[in-house]
Design brief:
With 187 residues, this protein is of the alpha/beta class. The protein contains four helices and eleven strands; from the N terminus they run E-E-H-E-H-E-E-H-E-H-E-E-E-E-E. The strands form two sheets. Strands 1, 3, 4, 5, 6, 7, 9, 10 and 11 form a nine-stranded mixed sheet that branches. It has a two-stranded antiparallel sheet with strand order 2-8. Bound molecules: NADP nicotinamide-adenine-dinucleotide phosphate (NAP). NADP nicotinamide-adenine-dinucleotide phosphate binds next to strand 1, strand 2, strand 3, helix 2 and strand 6.
Length: 187
């Protein structure tokens, strides 16, 4: 199983920093979404998570309980991470290990992975963000966009969350699960 996991706001923003000179990061605090991310990516404890170098740099250390893998065209190495130079190379090698793979992003990996993914776990956040120079967008993953034409939302799995600061959720959001309905590219 290959899955994409992504959190965006309604304009497709997935990373942003108020201070334009700093590296962008995730611009919301949603504890329930964090817990969902953990549950989905941990799975049965044998999962692989795959990310680009900037996403790896944005987290202080490897996420525990999952094999952390990085894709870098330059073959950049991170401590205790396996590195692949392309998504295709990663998919070929990992397919022999019979593990579930979740693609954490960023945009380039998400878009390339649309050809291979079976599932998408998509969090859509109702938080307006005023874009600046550090803002990163992935409008292709907004539900209803053309890029998602091979996927269908599984209605019964959609979860709605209302903003609740006592729970640690600062905005309203929905978590959608989308399943592939057309054939995928075989590696
Ligand atoms: N909201 C969310 O769901 C979410 C999820 C993940 C990350 N983020 C945020 O997004 C930001 C990072 O995202 P990003 O889009 O800027 O960068 P990214 O994808 O994490 O990193 C980009 C780098 O990864 C490598 N890479 C990516 N795709 C590749 C491919 N197909 N083949 C070979 N190498 C590839 C390249 O590294 P080389 O230059 O070494 O070749 C590229 O320069 C961070 O701020 C993070 O916090 C948000």
């Amino acid at each position: 199983m290959v899955g994409i996991i992504v959190a965006i706001n309604c304009k497709g923003i997935y990373a942003h920093n108020e201070i334009e000179t700093e590296e962008p990061n995730i611009p919301w605090h949603l504890k329930s979404d964090f817990l969902n991310f953990k549950k989905v990516t941990l799975g049965n404890g044998n999962n692989v998570i795959l990310m680009g170098t900037k996403t790896r740099e944005s987290i202080p250390r490897n996420l525990p309980g999952r094999k952390n893998v990085v894709v870098s065209s330059q073959g950049r190495e991170f401590s205790k991470n396996e590195t692949f130079t392309s998504l295709r190379e990663a998919l070929i090698v990992l397919s022999h290990r019979h593990v579930d793979l979740w693609i954490l992003g960023g945009r380039r990996l998400w878009l390339e992975a649309l050809g291979y993914a079976d599932l998408i776990s998509l969090t859509l956040i109702r938080k307006p963000i005023l874009p600046n120079k550090s803002t990163l967008f992935c409008p292709e993953l907004i539900p209803g966009s053309k890029a998602l034409k091979n996927f269908q939302i599984i209605d019964k799995e959609t979860q709605f969350f209302e903003a609740d600061l006592t729970r640690g959720d600062e905005a309203n959001f929905s978590i959608f699960t989308l399943k592939r309905v057309k054939e995928k590219i075989l590696v």
